[in-house]
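Sharing a chain and its predicted structure for anyone who wants a worked example. Both blocks are below, sequence first, tokens second.
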Amino acid sequence: MRDPKLQQSRFGSRTPWLDAAAPDESRPPYRIELGAGAPDEAAVAGCDRAIVELLDARPPWLDIEAGIVDEEQLRGVPVGPTLLLGFGGSALGARAALEFAEVAELRPGPLRVLDAVDPWVVGDTLDWAAACNAKLMVVSKSGNTIEVLRLLDACLSRGLEPLTLISDPIAGPERDAALPPIVARVREASAGQHVELAIPAQVGGRWSVFTAVGQAPLKAANVDPRLLTHAAIHERDRLASGAPAREGLARSLAWRLANPAPYSILWCYSEVLMHWGAWTQQLECESLGRERDDGSRVGELVCTLRGPADQHSVAQLLLDGPARGRVTFVDFDDDPAGSYAGDLAELARLRVIEREASAESMTLPTRTLLARDRSPATLAALMLHGMIETAVTAENWSIDPYGQPAVEKIKRGIRARS
């Protein structure tokens, strides 16, 4: 029987998430149920060894402590209405964290992420920012992301103040002319009255959610950033404690490697998981889409679906179309009867029924991942597991998951036309 204290929802009276933190984090972050394509035990054991090797090697993104922002610096991040300018890994993790914080009833303050250049969307967002005197948080690892630079110029033209900058470390008091353009623009516009936070140099954008990239937005929204970082450290150390702690991750990873496919479906049966799905999409697509030295190409297109809505738009293709993908059903480990949802219990129950019916009908390889609750700690653990799965998959495929060589070609083309 699930502990009702661990249920997180907007319905009725519930124990606040922080009161349930200790017993919650003592459990694995999710349960795994494997359907078609389940791996054999030898494959699971091999994946467990690969996870141990990765934990022992501790790549820079696993050195979470090194990315924790100094408390004094973090205090300099303004709390209040905030507009975050960033694309990809600079924004997707923050979106997911704030969504989980909202549903966990931590009441994050107003923070909007602007990662579009559509004038209609930008104009509406800038109107909101001007109306509430939002402060700018600018995130660009390189300091020269062209979209962020253009958005920053648009914000400055509206009189908005850039008070937080997150980028690669800037060494020494270089002259503004030598600085990356975004850094130079922020320093000039704020007259130095802003806080600069550094992403560890060896941690790429999509691997940076446990650095300032994830911590500063939570701080601006008046949510404790340690809810992410401390949970990630706890989960990393739990995984290192022995094979039983790694069993779910090893089995999930073995299923994935046993069922390579050109596309991978993340079918999220809770809207709360959609931003996590978008973050996972970037992590996997940019890390695993590679051309090898011999000219062969590897990778998988990650597609995030909404359930039950996409049963009415995509299920027919997955059931009767080409058998070339695999499907992960993702949801929360809620009471199947929907008891936590008050007078909406029948809808909560229907969601579970539809998820299970879809999984049973699927002819593609399937797994079901049921997250333990809606807390930021669970999100942190899910993200850490995603990074580990991605890194081990890259090792299995003999590719380097860091950097983005093909994307750089697009960026060069954009700069040449700008």
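Comments welcome. DSSP finds 15 helices and twelve strands in the chain.
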